[in-house]
Structures are given as structure tokens and as C-alpha cells.
Amino acid sequence: MSSHIDVAIRDLQPQMVAYISKKGPYTGIQQAFGTLFGWLGQKGLVPAGPPSGAYFNAPGEVPEEQLLWELRCPVAGNVPAAGPDAGGLGVKRVEAAQLAATMHKGSFEGIGATWGALGQWVAANGYQIAGPGIEIYLSDPGTTKPEDLLTEVAFPVRKA
């Protein structure tokens, strides 16, 4: 991927999300999504938008077993905050934020270059990163070819 990317500054609206908090390698993401969506079904919660992930540190910053991440799914209705339970599952409010966002098309193996380019864009355009990196999964990897996957990659930002 070239270092030129199209970035939009947009608002993330506050929302209630079901979530699962995890520590360890990203190879556990698929299983964690299965756990999250199974829990949603058990609790009778209805998804209200595309799932996402929040990444609190990154490979290269910490050893793989110390990676901290959270998978989220917006939920419909007036659902109260709860948890996390013993499995790291719960419901919480994600507050509004201003995002610097770009689109990544292709497999997750290549997403690191998109993150790098977005970080460079943020620094070069007078913004500071103001929270964990977010990936919003717009395609289902179970039904979409890897080269056609669409993922919005975003950092919460504020003007420097």
C-alpha cells in the first residue's frame, strides 16, 4: 500500500455496545467474536451496527501475550450498562469522539501498513491521537474473500 491514503475527520456518536475484553495475540479475535455474538444471543440483545475492535497497544510496543484489545458490537434498545462478567463480557457506553478515519481494503495481514499511514497522516495534519485505535468491520470474513474485506481504520483525535 502506498503511504497516500484518504482520511476523513468524522464524529463517532455515543452508543451502547456489548463487548469482550481480551489480553493476548490477535489470533484469538475470531474465537472472541464467536463468544461475543453467542453471549449477545443468550442475553437477547440485538446488534445495531457493524462490530468493531479497540486496540489499546500494538505489536512491536509490547510482547504478543500482553496485547490488550476489546471487541464491540452496538446494541439496539435501551440496554443498561453491565459487567464485565468473569468472561470479560458486558455492556457499556462508548462516548462520542472525533475520529481520523480511512478505509482498508484487503486482508487483515496487510492492515498494519494502513495503521502506519494513518498515524503519519494524524501527525502531519496537526492532530494528536486521543484514544485507542479502532477497526470497524464492514465485511464478514466468513462470507467475503480476503482481498475484498472492508475495514474502517480510525484513531480518536484532537487538534494538537
Question: Explain this structure to me?
Answer:
The protein is of the alpha+beta class. It has a single domain (8-159), classed as Multidrug-efflux Transporter 1 Regulator Bmrr, Chain A (Alpha-Beta Barrel), CATH 3.20.80. It has 2 helices and 9 strands; from the N terminus they run ββαββββαβββ. Strands 1, 2, 3, 4, 5, 6, 7, 8 and 9 form a 9-stranded antiparallel sheet that branches.
Can you give keywords for this protein?
single chain, about 160 residues, alpha+beta, Multidrug-efflux Transporter 1 Regulator Bmrr, Chain A, nine-stranded antiparallel β-sheet, 9 strands
Sequence-ordered SSE layout with sheet pairings:
Elements: E1 8-12, E2 15-23, H1 29-43, E3 52-55, E4 68-74, E5 89-94, E6 97-105, H2 111-124, E7 127-129, E8 133-137, E9 150-159
Antiparallel strand pairs: 1-6, 2-4, 2-5, 3-4, 3-8, 6-9, 7-9, 8-9
In short:
By secondary structure, the protein is an alpha+beta fold.
What fraction of the residues are assigned to beta strands by DSSP? 35-45%
CATH class, named: Alpha Beta
Write down the domain tally. Answer: 1
Rounded mean pLDDT score: 95
CATH architecture: Alpha-Beta Barrel
| N-to-C series of helices and strands | EEHEEEEHEEE
Molecular shape: globular
Determine the structural class based on helices, strands and strand pairing: alpha+beta
Helix fraction bin:
10-25%
Number of helices: 2
Find the count of extended strands (DSSP E, 2+ residues).
9
Q: Spans of 5+ residues with little confidence (pLDDT < 50)? A: none
CATH topology: Multidrug-efflux Transporter 1 Regulator Bmrr, Chain A
CATH superfamily: Regulatory factor, effector binding domain
Largest sheet: 9 strands, antiparallel
